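Reproducibility note. Readers wishing to regenerate the assembly model reported in the main text can use the exact inputs given here. Chain order matters: entities are listed in the order in which they were concatenated for prediction.
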Amino acid sequence: MQDIDTQIRDLVAQIVEKTPDEIKPDSRFVEDLGMDSMMALEILAAIEKKYKISIPEEKLAEFKTLNDTLAVVKENLAKKDNHA
Amino acid sequence: MLNIEEIFKILPQRFPFVMIDRILELEPKKRVVAIKNISFNEEFFGGHFPGRPVMPGVLIIEAMAQASIILFYESKVSLKEKDMIYYLGAVKVRFSRPVTPGDQLKLVIEPLKILSNAAIVKAQAFVADTEVASGELSFVAKEDAK
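Running the prediction on these inputs yields the following structure tokens for the assembly.
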């Protein structure tokens, strides 16, 4: 299985309709990749479904780059594991 | 459960673009079931297609979207008594059977994610319990600044 960084990069690439290698860890979603709020919502929903986690709406504002997104997801996954 | 007068209190659309007639089931944040009766008198059948009436797939999507608006509105206490305009963001729908005069379209919508001003829903359309279309819609809601 691919690591989570690669999985989320591929997922973002698919939604913003770019190739995965165009998504750099620090590419800015809006300015560099042309992401809009609808795409951000799709990414949030896709991540929640894939990892069976629930990310609060306020965290959506933190999804500015791939690195930011990974940080939120990993934090959330860690919480989930602690509860398990 | 909601008749057309009650639907009009929520939906901004009016004739000739009201694509649901009645809400049968409504469970905020969980599910809505709506119906749209399809009659040969529908204006679009005149041109789609002459002599072979088939409901345009985009109007099935519209019916899904309008049912989704009802679900979204009823799931959001904060929206009550505000004039909202809804914009579709993305649509991913597959059509499996044509819808023709005499059919009753049943729309079943379940949310995948609801935010304060946007949502992604799973949408299915049935005729007599056979699925005719299914997919996902995402949309945003904005207050109408008139």
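We highlight two features of this model. The mean pLDDT of chain A is 90. Chain A touches chain B through eleven residues (CB under 8 Å).
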